[in-house]
Amino acid sequence: MSYYPANCQLAHKYGYGWHYALMQHKHSSEVQHYSDEQLQALSIEEIKSQLQTEIELHQLQVMML
Description:
Blueprint: E1 2-4, H1 9-14, E2 17-23, E3 31-35, H2 44-63
Antiparallel strand pairs: 1-2, 2-3
């Protein structure tokens, strides 16, 4: 995550504001770069759903030990 102020050279090249480097998943080696306006935050329901899925996965792994 980087912030390019409006008066810096990188802002003139890539646009000012926040910029993010993201991997598609945690085992990926490919990184993609996005500006703030290219991303959309998850809804509360989507966040809860993803967290619940991860919790259930970890609980299953603990039960298998």
